[in-house]
Amino acid sequence: MFTTASALQEQEHAASGPLTVEGGLMLWTVFVFGLLLLILKRFAWPAILGAVEAREQALERQIAEAERSRTEAAALLAEHKKLVAEAKSQAHAIIVEARTVAEKERALALEKTKQEQEDLLARARREIGAERDRAVADLRREAVDLSLAAASKLIGERLGAESDRRLVLDYLATLDSGR
Contact, 138 vs 163, CB < 8 A? Predict the structure, then answer.
């Protein structure tokens, strides 16, 4: 009996291969698969679709937010470039103005220095002229005194009166104007 039962099992096992189809097993497999599809459609499918749609909406929001951020960044970049250009323009204007002011200051300082130089020169010329006039007057006085002393020795009397002195000075003045 044991030999026959085990022989039967070997025959059944040898007859049933991986490609053999059994009708009852196939019917139960289709029934369980259909039941599983109905249960999934009824309970799991709405949750899965809801999660997929939520994920899709979240991705769309993120894409829209990224696009908005990119647009804002581009606007900020353009504004930044504009501000940098304005700053460069203002800096250039300040530099030009500073150069102009420095040039004016230099010209004023140069003009002031030239004026001071001319004033010093004019004052020096006046002082030199006054000194020359004083020296000429002193020289004339000395010449008159020497002339009077020489004349008094020649004549033998003292010439020193104011009228004699004036006479010699007038003669010297006519000699000066004749030159």
Answer: no
34 within domain boundaries: no
Is 102 part of any domain? yes
Number of domains comprising the chain: 1
Q: Where are the alpha helices (DSSP H) in the chain?
A: 2-15, 23-39, 45-155, 162-178
With respect to residue 38, please indicate whether it lies within any of the assigned structural domains: no
The domain in which residue 140 lies consists of 52-178
Nearest to 175 by CA among 142, 141, 140: 140
Q: What is the pLDDT along the chain (179 residues), one digit of tens a residue?
A: 455 666 656 666 555 667 777 888 889 999 999 999 999 889 988 888 999 999 999 999 999 999 999 999 999 999 999 999 999 999 999 999 999 999 999 999 999 999 999 999 999 999 999 999 899 888 878 877 777 766 766 665 555 667 777 777 777 777 777 65
